[in-house]
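INFO  loader      accepted 1 record
INFO  loader      residues=194
INFO  predictor   begin
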Amino acid sequence: MSSVDEAGSAVPGTDAADPALVDAATLAGVPDEFQRLWTPHRMAYIQAGPEVLRHDCPFCEAPRRSDEDGLIVFRGHTAYALLNLFPYNSGHLLVCPYRHIATYDQATDEEVAEIGTLTQQGMRVLRQISRCDGFNIGMNQGHVAGAGVDEHLHQHIVPRWASDANFFPIIAKTKALPQLLGDVRRAVWDAWHA
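INFO  predictor   done
INFO  writer      dumping tokens
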């Protein structure tokens, strides 16, 4: 049996027996008030378990991978830039030295200079591709200061828009991200290397 359009005409190539073409109202389950935010990129950490962050530094591991697998958008001499696997907003970048150091005062002058240069370039790229209105830039030094990975220095570059704060993160503790991580990485990488 074929599906019909609004005018009642058969839609060619559709077959109600094909489960991929059946609308959600006819599928199993009971509709509820919840919205689903699909974040398949988080499966990497879920499947690996909490031991990954305890034993393997993600910022030492990322440069050992391909740019795509490590979410890297630029490799410098002493530091590199990558997308945050757990972004606050789409395009949330991190700038890290390759060396495994914990705090900014342990960085060499060369590392400090390159972290600054990559931060500026990251801002330019994000402004170009996302037309953001501003940025939050900063480093959380130590666990007590809110660092998720406190053993490896990293600077956050978070693009911000005038309308990006709403009830979702404030009340529901949920962040809606309009683009998939791989799509954002490709756009940032392409613009950075243009």
